Amino acid sequence: LCGQVLLDPEQLRLKHKSDGGREEGKEMDTKVTENLLQVFLHLEVLKLLPRVSSAERRRISEALLVLLRRVCLMAYPGLVGACLRETVLPCYAGDCGDVLVWLYEELMLPMPDCLQAPESPGGAPPSTLPPSPSGTVTSDT
């Protein structure tokens, strides 16, 4: 089930490539929607399985970053900020605050007030998340 529903960024890229390989093969809006859906599915895993290993948490965090960067490249950059602010924060700040802080930092988005407080929800400090992947951006659109 995980390999068919919860896809890592590479699996999703290969799926899009096999669906035509070019923008003509699959509407860009559909690709953006599928990437955002995967963001929510990955966040749900973190929310529902709070005791996931640190290695798995790091892998999921890195996957979220790649997926969100792809959305920035496929759509307009403001879409990611709006999606995070309007949908992700209200649903996941309490359970995944540390991951969201890290994502905001990596995406260089202004940190929302609810994530700035020292008693920020989410438990672990951002330092427990993966280091920046040395500035590489995977476009794979």
Task: Please characterize this protein's 3D structure.
This protein has 141 residues and is mainly α. 60% of the residues lie in helices and 0% in strands. The protein is built from 5 helices and no strands. Helix 2 (28-48) crosses helix 4 (78-106). The longest helix has 29 residues, at 78-106. The protein starts with 8 loop residues before the first helix and ends in a 25-residue tail after the last helix. Mean pLDDT is 80; it is low at 123-127 and 134-139.
Q: Gist?
A:
With 141 residues, this protein is mainly α.
Topology summary:
Blueprint: H1 9-18, H2 28-48, H3 54-74, H4 78-106, H5 113-116
Keywords, please?
disordered C terminus; 5 helices; mainly alpha; 141 residues
Largest sheet descriptor = none
Structural class by helix and strand composition = mainly alpha
The Rg value, from CA coordinates, equals 15 Å
Low-pLDDT runs: 123-127, 134-139
- Count all strands and give the number: 0
Order of helices and strands: HHHHH
Mean pLDDT over the full residue set? 80
Please work out how many helical segments DSSP would assign.
5
In helices, the fraction of residues equals 55-70%
First-residue to last-residue Cα separation? 25 Å
User: What is the 3D form?
Assistant: globular
